Amino acid sequence: MGKVISTRHGFKRTSFNFYEKQRFTSKLLLGLLFFIELGLVYMLIEQELSGRLWGMKPVNPIILMGILFFITTPLIAIFLITRFDTVINDDGIFYRWRPYNKSYSIYDWSAVRTVSIVEMKGPRIGKSKSAKRGEMHYLGGKFGMKLETKSGKIKILGTHRPEELNRILVRVAGDKYRTNSDHSFDYA
């Protein structure tokens, strides 16, 4: 019990499901990456057109192209294509990191001990593991769903829509759904 089962099409989409797609939302970070990318492109073009190295301490064009093609461009691509999907229905809780996982991981309701909505404290993005606090899947926002399995594992799945999640969990989780009085979870 409590085992994660990967499935390709393990749930039926209905209007009663909770379905959330989360993406990176930091416009400041994306703008900074684009600014760095444009600066590197400008430096490369300037060096090629003028025939001399650019700046007071010039950098070899090969190094500039390496930074451009192997650091900033992949970071922008990751920022734009990464998505965290969560689906909750009568069968269980499904989640995946798209495009890295094509199939969903699932916890069916028989494997769940408790589920609750908690307020997140501390800046965390992505997937992390802590032996003390469990595994966390989070892309910003202030809230997450804390899932405790019968085997004792803890998962935190971030959400930007706690009110809608609350309505669905009341309906589908039944007595497994716990409302916390303080709704906080310190992950810093």
List keywords for this structure.
188 residues, alpha+beta, disordered N terminus, 5-stranded antiparallel sheet, 6-stranded mixed sheet
Question: What report would you give on this structure?
Answer:
The structure is a single chain. The relative contact order is 0.19. The protein has three helices and eleven strands; from the N terminus they run ββααββββββββαβ. A hairpin with a 5-residue loop joins β4 (92-98) and β5. A six-stranded mixed β-sheet has the order 7-8-10-9-6-11. Strands 1-5-4-3-2 form a five-stranded antiparallel β-sheet. α1 packs antiparallel against α2 (61-81). It has 188 residues and is α+β, with helices and mostly antiparallel strands. It is elongated.
The tally of beta strands, per DSSP, is: 11
Alpha-carbon distance between the two ends: 30 Å
Silhouette: elongated
Name the beta content range: 25-35%
Q: SSE string, helix = H, strand = E?
A: EEHHEEEEEEEEHE
Structural class estimated from helices and strands: alpha+beta
Q: Spans with pLDDT under 50 lasting ≥5 residues?
A: 1-7, 181-188
Cross-sheet strand order for the largest sheet: 7-8-10-9-6-11
Number of helices: 3
What's the overall average pLDDT, rounded?
Answer: 81
Question: How large, in whole angstroms, is the Cα Rg?
Answer: 22 Å
Percentage of helical residues? 25-40%
* Sheet of most strands: 6 strands, mixed
Summarize it.
With 188 residues, the chain is of the alpha+beta class. It has helices spanning 27-50, 61-81, 162-172; strands at 5-7, 18-23, 83-88, 92-98, 104-108, 112-121, 125-130, 134-139, 143-149, 154-159, 184-186. Helices cover 30% and strands 35% of the residues.
